[in-house]
Amino acid sequence: MYNIIEKFTANPERLKKFQQAFKRMPDFICYSLCVLAGFILYVLAVHTRKRVKRNLADLLGPTHSLRLSRLCRSYFTHLMLVLFEILIRSSALESARQRTFGTEGEQHLEEALQHGKGAVLFTPHTGNFFYYYWYVSKKYPCLTVATAGSKELRPLYELFEQMGCSGLDYDTVPPLKLLKTCGVI
User: Fold this and answer.
1) What residue spans define the domains of the chain?
2) Percent of the chain scored above 90 by pLDDT?
3) CA 56, CA 71: separation in Å to the nearest integer?
4) For 26-128, where are the alpha helices, taking DSSP H only?
5) 160: nearest Cα among 122, 124, 131
6) Can you say whether the dihedral through the CA atoms of 74, 160, 141, 104 is positive or negative?
7) Any residues with CB less than 8 A from the CB of 83 and at least 6 apart, and which?
8) pTM, 2 dp
9) For residue 145, how many other CB atoms are within 10 A of its CB?
10) Rounded Cα distance, 168 and 35, in Å
């Protein structure tokens, strides 16, 4: 999967051209193109598709092949949507916050923080997880612990940092420093 992500992150000039082109398009066209690109990727990326289906079957156990195919197509669609939101739309998040996404469940975070303790948020990489991640990191003091060790993912995390989302790369930060920074020890 990283090789697909690398196609989008490896060339900054191409990425800027994509950002400029998509900036002028209405949202419904952009999202329709993402769904179409996800379907095309599903059809063309045969080896990756087989690997995703195998992983889904391992995770879900005995599952009908039509359901696996549907879930796999959905996986590719979500991949394209997430990449679009992070690489293209993230540059306009501040101005588009009200119309782009809504937040839910924030009262649970507020309640946990009122007790003087921190909170760990788990954000599955589906839907527009990145928008909420960005929103929370702007509103609260946050620290993200993730892997940025691969050359394919590094540009994504650099983009996060540019947007003010601080983080630690657990591939490069020594474990003791990671634990101290997170307040575990």
Assistant:
1) 1-96, 106-185
2) 23
3) 8
4) 27-44, 46-60, 65-83, 93-100, 106-114
5) 131
6) negative
7) 5, 8
8) 0.71
9) 13
10) 32
